[in-house]
């Protein structure tokens, strides 16, 4: 009986997990990209590199600091969109501390 109860509890926890949505920002206006991030909280944006043709680039972009892991901060980033080449959005970046100069350094 305990095994069945434990399995049921684990299934409920797993059912609450949601998959993160993926979008192509070059097919959306900048306002729509920002609205999508605001609505969903965190999304993956995938687009082609402008420097290296055929190279796909992607990253996870977030609405607020709440969607970042421990040791990460929300930092500005830009992605191409249908109406502009630099739509300002936010993504999580790991923070490393430079002990010699006692300052924080954002890692990519």
UniProtKB/TrEMBL annotation:
Keyword annotations from UniProtKB, A to Z: Signal
Q: Does the keyword Signal apply?
A: yes
Signal peptide segment: 1-19
Protein name listed in UniProt = KTSC domain-containing protein
Organism per entry: Mesorhizobium tianshanense
Which taxonomic lineage does the organism of this UniProt entry have? Bacteria, Pseudomonadati, Pseudomonadota, Alphaproteobacteria, Hyphomicrobiales
């Amino acid at each position: 009986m305990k095994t069945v109860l434990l399995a049921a509890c684990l299934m409920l926890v797993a059912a609450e997990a949601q998959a993160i949505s993926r979008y192509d920002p070059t097919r959306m206006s900048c306002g729509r990209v920002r609205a999508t991030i605001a609505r969903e909280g965190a999304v993956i944006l995938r687009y082609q590199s402008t420097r290296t043709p055929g190279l796909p680039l992607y990253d996870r972009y977030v609405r607020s600091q709440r969607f970042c892991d421990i040791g990460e901060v929300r930092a500005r980033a830009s992605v191409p969109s249908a109406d502009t080449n630099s739509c300002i959005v936010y993504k999580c970046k790991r923070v490393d501390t430079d002990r010699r100069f006692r300052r924080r350094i954002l890692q990519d």
